Amino acid sequence: MFPCLISGICLEAGVPLLPFEEADTPEAPLTDKTMDNSDARIRAREMRAQRAPVVQPDDAAHDPAPPVPQPGPATDTNLGIQFTQIQVALTEICRSMNDIQNTLVGVQHTQHDMQEELLRVSLLVRGWQHDGVDIRSNQRTINFAYDDVNRRMIHLGSRIDTIDGTVSRIAEAVDSL
Hints:
Helices cover 70% and strands 2% of the residues. By secondary structure, it is mainly α. A hairpin with a 2-residue loop joins strand 1 (5-6) and strand 2. The longest helix is centred in the middle third of the chain and has 59 residues, at 73-131. The chain is rod-shaped, with a radius of gyration of 38 Å. The two termini are 36 Å apart. Mean pLDDT is 69; it is low at 1-13 and 15-27.
């Protein structure tokens, strides 16, 4: 507690004091106990003020660094908690990376399917041109193929958005480390 207090008793007056939070706040109730020791509290406050070092703004830069905490039960507990948080964050990162990998495999399959569809239509059009077939009569087949490719492109866009969201989750997990 305070230098002048031992178990809540002022050394000068030998009377019990209230804890600092209760005694020095204006909201503290005035009881017989607080009225009896108000002079002792005033003297104790003055003594603390005399002992307190006055820190000037220039002196603040020259203060020594705080001591390095020695390993002990509290430090070990904090390290254990931090280690657990790191494990949770790394698990989330691995899960997110797995999601990205699965999404990219799906994207690769979709791109391959789109290339095959476009190649099929391209061969059909060349064959029709070679045989002298009117391409307009087969416009429905061409439109269907391009609509299918367009639908797959939209699907790829949603998968890319999924990857973007997953990357954001990874960034949050890394920030929490």
